[in-house]
Amino acid sequence: MSEAPKRPVQAAFSPEDMARRNRRSVALALVLAGLAVFFFVVTLVKTAPAILNRPL
Amino acid sequence: MSAAFDTIETRSDGAALTSTGEARDFFALLKPRVMFLVIVTAMGGMAAAPGAIHPVLGLAALLAIAVGAGASGCLNMWWDADIDSLMTRTARRPIPAGRILPSEALAFGLTLAVGSVIVLGLVANLLAAGLLAFTIFFYAVVYSMWLKRWTPQNIVIGGAAGAFPPMIGEAVVTGDFGIRSLVLFAIIFLWTPPHFWALALVKAADYGRAGVPMLPNVAGPAATRRQIVVYTLLMAPVAVLPALMGFAGAIYLFVSVVTGLAMIGLSLRVLRTTEGEAAHKAAYALFGFSILYLFLLFAVLLAENSLGLMWALPKAIG
Fold first, then answer.
1. Sequential DSSP letters for B77-128
2. I want to staple B76 with a disulfide (CB 3.0 to 4.6 A). Which of B144, B175, B247, B260 is the partner?
3. With an 8 Å Cβ cutoff, are A20 and B60 in contact?
4. How many CB pairs under 8 A join A and B?
5. ipTM > 0.90 (yes/no)
């Protein structure tokens, strides 16, 4: 007879743990937003001269 | 909030699969104080380079270099978590303190390492990206995984990892590196042994408990003190070279001579003061001042080259 596959056990988070995880999620969102701005600005700086100098 | 969200996944043996570490714990994994020195030294390399870069691209490249340095610090903390938990200086770090899981630190470090190299390649050039990748590899693999627990020369050879940022900085600006960043490399390379061995003299018991073969534990405090003086005597004249070679000016010459003499004085105090609390204080003084010394050298180099403060000296070399 085969054993049932082991599944991850679920343990409870305390309210303090949840607050810490929420703050972590907010920080991650801010970093991702910052990265989006970063890539946008770098792309502008890298490509803008070529766009401005192209033959019309 | 739904109860389904208030749970933590654990393995079948009860170990957690996710931590409750906060953003500041992840930031601590990047060794922010080391990152700061890396930024300053990389900026020094960029400022001393014969060329110019768009300021936005320069800042973006600096960010990538800083994140790459942070990634190598994170991978170092992941690998060394077992010995960090045995040492008083490092026991409160996020992994040994249980705030971050080792698997999370590994994933975080690898992601930042790959990301920083790719971004530097796109923002600057492939040489700079390749140097950053090699620096991360050297620190995380050659130093942390191999040298650190194997030889008392660990921080001498491993010091190369900390010395690469000025070369990366010059590569960012010029797409190449030359004698200028090699001199800056040599300054940091020769600065590393007196800096770390001063700390190792104070923390010898810590390193002994963790089984890390630092020089004071292997060769003894007396030999370590002599080696500190030798490396400081080699480093101080090399630190003056940027002014003599013409890529730093009169302010740098003054600062490098005065602070270099102070480093020599402090190292001689470490050599002479061998007993009790006074010996610890002498070693701590050298350790603390060495950080200020390196910061001052590169900050002045940066200021002179970027703020028009370069009062050039008659060129002696190059």
1. HHHTHHHHTTSTTTTTSTTTTTSS-HHHHHHHHHHHHHHHHHHHHHHT-HHH
2. B144
3. no
4. 60
5. no
Domains of chain B: 21-177 (1.10.357.140), 181-318 (1.20.120)
* Distance to chain A for B60, nearest Cα, Å: 7
Report in angstroms the alpha-carbon separations of B184 from B132, B168, B318.
Answer: 16, 11, 15
Report domain extents, chain A: 23-56
Interchain contact, A8 vs B57, CB within 8 Å = no
Contacts of A13 in chain B (CB under 8 A): 6-8, 20
B143 phi and psi, to 5 degrees?
Answer: -80, -60
Question: Which chain B residue has its CA at the smallest distance from A7's CA?
Answer: B12
Percentage of chain B exceeding pLDDT 90: 86
How many CB atoms are closer than 10 A to CB B191?
Answer: 26
pLDDT for B314 equals 56
Residues B277-306: pLDDT tens digits? 999 999 999 999 999 999 999 999 999 998
Per-residue pLDDT tens over the stretch B90-149: 999 999 999 999 999 999 999 999 999 999 999 999 999 999 999 999 999 999 999 999
Contact call for A9 and B60, based on CB within 8 A: no
- Is A10 near chain B, with CB under 8 Å? yes
